[in-house]
Amino acid sequence: MVIYFFNFLISLKMNSLIPGGNPHNNYPVYIDGKLFHFEQPQVNIEDILNKADKSPVSCYSVWQGLEGCDFRLLRPNEKVDLRNIGAEKFRTMEPVIFNYQVNDQPETTDQTAMPPLQILKQAAIDHEKEYLVQIFRDEPEKVYAWLLDVPIKMVCTGMKFVSRPWVPLADIEELGKNCKPAPVAKQYRVKIQNKYHIVNSPYLPQSEIIRLGGKQEVDRWDVLVFYSNSANPVKISKDEVVNLQQPCILHFVLQPKSQTEGRDGKREFVLPIEDQSFLNAQSLPWETLLSNHGNCLIIHDFLVPPGYNVSKVQVALIIPPSYPAAQIDMAYFYPALQLVSGKSIMALTSCDIDGRIFQRWSRHRAANEWIPGVDNIATHLFLVNNWLSKEVNQ
Q1: Domain 169-256 classified CATH 3.10.20?
Q2: Residue of 298, 355, 364 lying closest to 332 (CA atoms)
Q3: Which end of the chain is more exposed for a tag (fewer CB within 10 A), N or C?
């Protein structure tokens, strides 16, 4: 049967070579086992794929059958003479060469998958200075800045990449105040528990945030993220990874999972959740009172810097009814503070709060310095600490 089929093909070829034997220039070939006819004696890869209705042609390679069971790969633009015996059988397969672009420059590879680092190196781009981005026609672009070794499957229809320069450092808190998304950066400055940390990736697992906050027993702590466009923080789940590039992030606060009301403080009005979380994280007793001066927060065992007559005080803050839209002003201390140097502290008065005489420090922000959604009890206490330090160092 095989000998009969081979002789049949030879007779067809001989007829095409004998004058008058193939009056219609009919050249039969088999493509993937199916019989097709060409009118021209020479064909290339594109001709063969079009005849077999294989589209797009970039997604196929063509192999020419040889004597026996062997096949050879046809190269681009190679011509096959159908008048030669043994050139009648072809097989189509997946592509062996992939074409793509980097910064509008053509590149080729015979690999079915390439990591971003290899794509950059092949295009002579320094990955320390630039990162890779894949561009799609109808989809959002994909950034491979932190995925240098993750293989990208090559696509036969062509792929488009661009490289972009790294930003050296992105300050998350400063960007968050204006609700700006963080750029692709080599490093990120992030605030956790009122301390700043430099990290090399925008992706922070919940457990890593806890460790950066100085806590090693990660199962004992919750993580709260504060946003500039929301008065309430958001709790991060145990296995969640925070993307620092999302807009409006300000900082993170750690909160013990097992809490008691052992502070034994009064709770006569309710503070926003973000303020409660911040105060609890300081491990200091606090209480809220309805005083003759309005809503009053009192924090116990508040540390003062060296140079004063005491090392700890109670600090009171008057919380306006429309807080946090309205600003907190001044600070009140019990017992009264004095400098051990004997220097006077200016702008002081006395104030009765809950039956005790507190020392009021008349210190005020400039107009429009309070930013709702950004400023809160934490930022005001930061100012209070600055006031205390300034008096000692004058």
Answers
A1: yes
A2: 298
A3: N
Q: Are 96 and 108 in contact (CB under 8 A)?
A: no
pLDDT at position 194: 80
**Residue 298 CB neighbours (<10 A):** 23
Extract the tokens encoding 189. 């400055």
Biggest distance spanned by C-alpha atoms of the chain: 124
Q: Whole-angstrom distance between the N-terminal and C-terminal Cα of the chain?
A: 108
Could you say which architecture CATH assigns to the domain 2-93? Roll (3.10)
- Residues 312 and 302: beta-carbon distance below 8 Å: yes
Residues in the chain: 394
CA angle 257, 260, 265 (to 5 degrees): 130
Distance CA 51, CA 28 (A): 12
Q: State phi, psi for 299 to the nearest 5 degrees.
A: -110, 125
Q: Please list, in sequence order, all residues whose beta carbon lies within 8 angstroms of the beta carbon of residue 19, skipping any fewer than 6 positions away.
A: none
Tell me the whole-structure pTM to 2 decimals.
0.54
**Is there a common fold for 2-93 and 169-256?**
yes
- How far apart are the C-alpha atoms of 303 and 254, rounded to whole Å? 20
- pLDDT-based confidence at 249, cuts 50/70/90? very high
Interval 377-386 mean pLDDT: 93
Note if the bond before 56 is cis, omega within 30 degrees: yes
98-165 maps to which CATH number?
3.10.20.30
Name residues whose C-beta falls within 8 Å of residue 172's C-beta, 6 or more positions apart in sequence.
182, 188, 189, 190, 191, 244, 249, 250, 251
Structure tokens at 256: 């013990």
Task: Give me the residue spans of the domains in the chain.
Answer: 2-93, 98-165, 169-256, 273-393
pLDDT tens, 11-47?
A: 444 444 444 344 456 899 999 989 999 999 999 999 9
Q: What amino acid is encoded at 218 in this protein?
A: V
Q: How far apart are CA 193 and CA 255, in angstroms?
A: 10
Give residue 116's pLDDT: 97
Model confidence at 260: pLDDT above 80: no
Distances (CA, A) of 134 to 140, 157, 248: 9, 14, 26
Rounded to 10°, the helix 377-393/273-281 angle is 50
Q: How confident is the model at residue 87 (pLDDT cuts 50, 70, 90)?
A: low
Cα–Cα dist 223/226, whole Å: 10
Structure confidence at residue 85 as a pLDDT band (50, 70, 90): low
Share of the chain above pLDDT 90, in %: 61
